[in-house]
Amino acid sequence: MKRSKNSGALYECKKFISRVKNSFKGKYQLYSGEQLHWLKVVLRLESSIIPIVIPWVIFFSIYGFLVSLLYHFGLPIGFPQGNRVVTNAVLSFNIGLTLLLVFRTNTAHERFWEGRKLWGALVNTVRNLIQNIYVVIKEQSPKDRRDKEAILRLIVAFAFAMKIHLRGEKVNEQLASLMSESQYFKLKDAKHPPLQIAFWIRDYLQYQHDRNCLNIYQLTTLHTLVDELLNILGGCERILKTPLPLIYAIKLRLLVGIYCIILPLEIVTYLTWWTGVVIAFVNFTLLSIEHIGSEIEEPFGNDPNDLPLDLICNTILNNAEEMITIVSKNIPYIPQVSEEINQ
């Protein structure tokens, strides 16, 4: 009976955790590592969109009010009722605009998701490289242990340097604690910091091979992992430097503007004073969707809807620090022999 109650409590606990993860708050916490109230989550995600969209929403709402005002005073500003030609033209325009918005959003999401897959591959490659260096490279002196810890942190520095490089920022204090002072100052003068760090990693591996701490097969395996780091970097640079053709954004915004100019003339005969409110809502919806696509097509920035690169880099750092702790405590793997075998 007691076991049944415990099973029921465990089931309810799992159900509650699942419900939390599916909420705005839970999903945002998994995504960014921050625990915020759901309202703050919504406001933060909308904060990069609303300031850009609101001026246009106000403009078109005033335009809709002026159309209603002119119609109220008897000016024949609205399209004639029952004119199916005009109605069908506006409907066709609406369908074409919707399809273009769908294409814009899907293309932007593909770029966003590809960027996320590349950073996920970076996490895995860094973990593999760190563990391989820890296990494979032989230590002949205490200095070798310190050099190994330094190179593990340098691998982490590659991820931080890659983040800074993709955001177009300069080398900052985030990298200072992950390398020597001379390396840090040299990196500040480098035109491509991630490539410089990759070169230092390769130089360390070659040095260990020359000291007979690595055989040629192990060296090749480790170089392959470094190659993968550079491939991931190249994939992210491809996304960054090959945006969606600008003509799509220009045409889309132009069509949204034309649609929001024509629509009040179509609906004013039915909605009269509500025309301004309806056109403001329509304009806000269309421009928000367009701006979301524009924001997520470049997923490496600092906007709330971009990839959580800071969280990913901190995850890599924590993994490396855990490995360094294992190295410093000198905790080997000791197979446990069962008593039955001994008997």
In short:
By secondary structure, the protein is an all-alpha fold.
Task: Summarize the SSE layout with pairings.
Elements: H1 2-21, H2 24-32, H3 38-46, H4 50-72, H5 84-136, H6 142-166, H7 181-189, H8 193-210, H9 216-241, H10 246-271, H11 275-296, H12 309-329, H13 339-342
Helix pairs in contact: 4-10, 4-11, 5-6, 5-9, 5-10, 5-11, 5-12, 6-8, 6-12, 8-9, 10-11
Structure commentary:
- The chain is mainly α and 343 residues long.
- The protein has a domain at 141-242 and 308-328.
- The protein has 13 helices and no strands.
- The protein is elongated, with a radius of gyration of 29 Å.
- The model is unreliable at 337-343 (pLDDT under 50).
Q: How many E-type strands?
A: 0
Alpha plus pi helix count:
13
Rg calculated over all Cα atoms: 29 Å
The rough form would be described as: elongated
Unreliable stretches covering 5 or more consecutive residues = 337-343
What about the largest sheet? none
Task: Return the structural class.
Answer: mainly alpha
What structural keywords apply?
mainly alpha, 13 helices, 343 residues
